[in-house]
Amino acid sequence: MLTAVKNQLRVCGLSVRYNIMREMLNRVTFLTNIGFMILNNATFIVQWIILFHLKEDIGGYHMSDVMLLWGLAASSYGLSRILFARAFALPGLIINGKLDAYLVQPKNVLLSVITSATNTSAIGDLIYGYLIVCLFCFSVSRLLLFTLFTITGTVIVTAFALLMGSLTFWFVRADAFGDNMINCLISFSTYPDGIFQGTARFLLYNIIPVGMAIYQPIHIMIEFDVRSLLTVLGYTILLSAIAILVFYRGLRRYSSSNLMEVRQ
């Protein structure tokens, strides 16, 4: 059992490595995409500097807290797009019947699908996240927690994208709904949770998993709490299990498009 799991992870690792190496064939484009992504994220620092000159705190957050928020959001989203980019394109594969090429391969279908592509510009997001921590709020313990929560955030974001994408097995236009939900997750993750109240706050902690992917980890890094840490870890495992279950249940309903395709 452990050997099989190890082999599956090794194959997935090789797939991601191959995807990145393929993108690196044009090194100028590769490095330019990464550099511009870092610059694009950095432009928002000016916005927050101006806002904090006008007000001492926003939603209970200070400048360093908001930077930590942005860093974690960028690194979590970035790593998910580096390792599991195809999870965000799942509806298109289902609608066009392009899962066929993965079903005939002698490896785990889900891992084969979600690791079959990478977004190299997302490397800039990952780098940006760590630069923010090092420049604005560095400490060894915080860096370790940041790395842990980048991993949990990556898993949560990927699981949510997989869950939304899997709805396409049942509903024809679920792709538009799923895209909107993922965009909401990304957008709300860059604003302090203290500014949201009532229904909005309920949605961000219970429907759109921004709370457990970003907000709760930020609070833990600001003021460490073991129970909150265990809650985040438990939520990560639970959401992943639900996403996997929904995907495989939906896969039973999948209808081939009879396209003859071979993955390169």
Automatic annotation (TrEMBL):
Q: Which organism is it from?
A: Acetatifactor muris
Q: Where are the transmembrane segments?
A: 30-54, 66-84, 126-145, 151-172, 202-222, 228-248
Entry keyword set: Membrane, Transmembrane, Transmembrane helix
Domain of life where this protein originates: Bacteria
Alphabetized Pfam families for the sequence: ABC2_membrane_6
- Would the keyword Membrane be found if you checked this record's keyword annotation? yes
Q: What is this protein called?
A: ABC-2 family transporter protein
Keyword Transmembrane listed: yes
